[in-house]
Amino acid sequence: MSFLEHKKVDDVKLYINGEFVDAHNAAYFDNLNPFTNQVTNRVAEGDKADIEKAVKAADDAFQTSWGRMKQKERMTYIDRIADLIDEEVEEIAVLESLDSGLPISQTRKMIARAAENFRFYSRMVQSRMHGEAYAVDDEFINYTVYKPLGAVGLITPWNAPFMLTTWKVAPALATGNTVILKPAELSPLSANKLAQIIDKAELPKGVFNVVHGFGETAGDALVKSEKVKAISFTGETTTGKTIIKNSADSLKKTSMELGGKSPLIVFDDADFERALDATVWGIFSFNGERCTANSRVFLHKDIKEKFVAALKDRVEKIKIGDPMDTSTQLGPLINKGHFDKVTRYIEIAKEEGCEVVQGTVPEKIKSGNFVPPTLLLDAKNKMRVSQEEIFGPVLAVIEFETEEEVVQMANDVDYGLAGYVWTNDIKRAHRVAQNVDSGMLWINAQNVRDLRIPFGGMKASGMGREGGHFAILEFYSEPKAIHVAMGDHHIPQFGK
Ligand code: NAD
């Protein structure tokens, strides 16, 4: 499928109360293509008034239909959404690549997995959304049940839009909540496709709503709405802090999946080629716009020279190109503003004393937002380029000598999302895994995760965990404790 065949994409509307509608003031904003910087289509620009409409629809649907529906019936809808995603994997992957610049070979795999998010939560809710019961002799029985929260707000970023959106929508709906989704303004297309799929699955009106628009207007109104019970947010750490503050007045539950600056540590006994493959994939896949990217690689001094030579060779050969070309490995960054930010960090790296080694962007595609794969050699952990999230295809390469020193450097950073350690010494592998401060750590592995395992970070990388039963029991529902007396226990008789 060539890129040109997909230049024309219909304008996108809001999806509120089961209908595709204009924003209340009929405003639209332009959606740009990262490969050409030309307008792909126009997107309805929702704001506070549209959010209020969507919140009312979601709240009504919770009270009247979705919140009261039998679990089995609800799961029929969830499974139907999964089947419909399966039917449209190719179409969604094309939209996603067009919108985000992510290579089509990578979006196809991401989208194929998105259907499984719905099936997984259908199974998980049916098998795990149950409470506990305690019989207290034959006097009492205490038990818990898990109840959905009501209307919940989901706010998502642009870097892996469909996958991250379905991570949230699937557990939120499966547990019985209704949803208002505010997708990233830079990547609205696959969220609109999800609305079309859910519309086709004929969920009751108002159960799922999408309000496109900007963070400071639509997102802000969603966070501050009194009727919204919780906000699940994925995005930058600074935005997360603002959202926590703004949700305080309505005492909202929040879940925060934020930025990262994750370390990958290669010891001298590591399986060299596999560690190299994982390092290159972990920073240059998804165009480097990946929250769990290993943006700092720590190399043991005895293998550093050989590893750096191999990295230089890979960087030279990574295929940079049209995201719609199946052989492309690295596409353009999301927009010009982000391109400027990443490019500026490469300049900072030079000022801080790094040697910069880069691949080459072919001349004919230079109008796109391409940053070539970039190595920052001789980086030090204290440098800004090793401390701040660049969110592009840029790898800081840092040397170490001892285990103690590398763990100290890995932890000497604000973030704590992911970590990776490569060594064949089993004791050291586990020691390092235990000692690196991150929500997730992989030993001799790239970033692969079973859906049953929690996802999330510590420190500035987030608060709370989603994934697995954590999403349904700890975030999208509330435990209720019921205390029942079975006999006539003592009750003090004040005033008798
Ligand atoms: P962002 O914070 O700029 O935007 C994310 C979303 O928040 C968008 O929908 C935006 O419109 C909205 N928003 C912005 N300001 C808001 C406000 N005041 N109130 C309510 N909503 C607001 O993030 P981004 O640039 O879209 O995404 C990249 C960031 O996301 C990176 O930092 C990356 O590490 C992080 N990320 C984290 C994870 C994770 O799971 N930890 C996963 C993917 C991306």
Secondary-structure map with pairings?
Elements: E1 14-16, E2 19-21, E3 28-32, E4 39-44, H1 48-64, H2 71-87, H3 89-100, H4 104-128, E5 133-136, E6 140-148, E7 151-155, H5 161-174, E8 178-182, H6 189-200, E9 208-210, H7 215-224, E10 230-234, H8 237-246, E11 253-257, E12 263-266, H9 272-284, E13 296-300, H10 301-317, H11 336-351, E14 355-358, E15 374-377, H12 384-387, E16 394-400, H13 403-411, E17 415-416, E18 418-422, H14 426-435, E19 440-443, E20 458-459, E21 462-463, H15 468-475, E22 477-485
Parallel strand pairs: 7-8, 7-10, 8-9, 10-11, 12-13, 12-18, 13-16, 15-16, 18-19
Antiparallel strand pairs: 1-2, 3-4, 5-6, 6-22, 11-21, 14-15, 17-20
Helix pairs in contact: 1-7, 2-4, 3-4, 4-5, 4-15
Bound molecules: nicotinamide-adenine-dinucleotide.
Give a concise summary.
This protein has helices at about 50-65, 70-85, 90-100, 105-130, 160-175, 190-200, 215-225, 235-245, 270-285, 300-315, 335-350, 385, 405-410, 425-435, 470-475; strands at about 15, 20, 30, 40-45, 135, 140-150, 150-155, 180, 210, 230-235, 255, 265, 295-300, 355-360, 375, 395-400, 415, 420, 440-445, 460, 460-465, 475-485. The protein is an alpha/beta fold and about 500 residues long. It has a seven-stranded mixed β-sheet with strand order 14-15-16-13-12-18-19, sandwiched between helices. It has a six-stranded mixed β-sheet with strand order 9-8-7-10-11-21, with helices on both faces. A three-stranded antiparallel β-sheet has the order 5-6-22.
